[in-house]
Amino acid sequence: QVQLVESGGGSVQAGGSLRLSCAASGFTFSRYSMGWFRQAPGKARSFVATITWNSGGTRYADSLKDRFTISRDNAKNTVYLQMNSLKAEDTAVYYCAATSDWVIPTTRSGYDYWGQGTQVTVSS
After folding, report:
1. Which of 12, 19, 36, 47 has its CA 20 to 30 A from that of 115?
2. What are the residues whose beta carbons fall under 8 Å from the beta carbon of 21, sequence distance 6 or more?
3. What SS3 class is residue 41?
4. What average pLDDT does the structure give for the chain?
5. How far is CA 25 from CA 33, 71, 105, 120, in A?
6. 118-123 and 10-13: which strand pairing?
């Protein structure tokens, strides 16, 4: 069975940091590009970051580029999201996703597999 399991979420004060992990299984992880999305209460799920299958390229939402870093370890079938200088507006459920699309998408419909999400709460 295909599984994407996020971890590392929690509560943190504004200005703090968190490192999210997403462990993948049930598919050939190294053949897929990976993405992170987030969804705040009452808002649509939005793009956070993507990384290519070989870590050769990354892309971020413009508002997050200076604070967030995506990375992956194919030997561990894991993708990471380092989040620094967190703000209250970063509060959301964070999801990881996998795509086989040649053109790495930034939309929800472009991804094949999704995790269940991990809650990040930033207090001010």
Report:
1. 12
2. 6, 7, 8, 78, 79, 80
3. coil
4. 96
5. 14, 17, 21, 23
6. parallel
Q: How far apart are CA 117 and CA 53, in angstroms?
A: 21
CA distances for 87 relative to 61, 64, 91, angstroms: 15, 11, 8
pLDDT, position 102: 76
| Residues 6 or more apart whose Cβ sits within 8 Å of residue 121 | 10, 11, 12, 91
Beta pairing partners, 99: 33
Closest by CA position to 53, among listed 13, 5, 101: 101
Cβ(18)–Cβ(36) below 8 Å: no
Average pLDDT over every residue of 93-116 = 92
CB of 34 closer than 8 Å to CB of 51? yes
